[in-house]
Amino acid sequence: xxxxxxxxxxxxxxxxxxxxxxxxxxxxxxxxxxxxxxxxxxxxxxxxxxxxxxxxxxxxxxxxxxxxxxxxxxxxxxxxxx
Length: 82
Known about the structure:
Blueprint: H1 11-27, H2 32-63
Helix pairs in contact: 1-2
């Protein structure tokens, strides 16, 4: 029987939880079952964040002229892109 899915409050809390999970997994001091459960939750959070970013991008496209995104790559220094 699977456990109920924890709700995700919003994008910011999902990112914070995902960062915490990554830290726990990187530390590597967890039993396999716990690591797998955290990894599964991380995938769920990652998908949620990806979907939220996609929705935000679509909203921006609608709000810009004719739905065309402006190329903002010139606004970022080369060092910042790495």
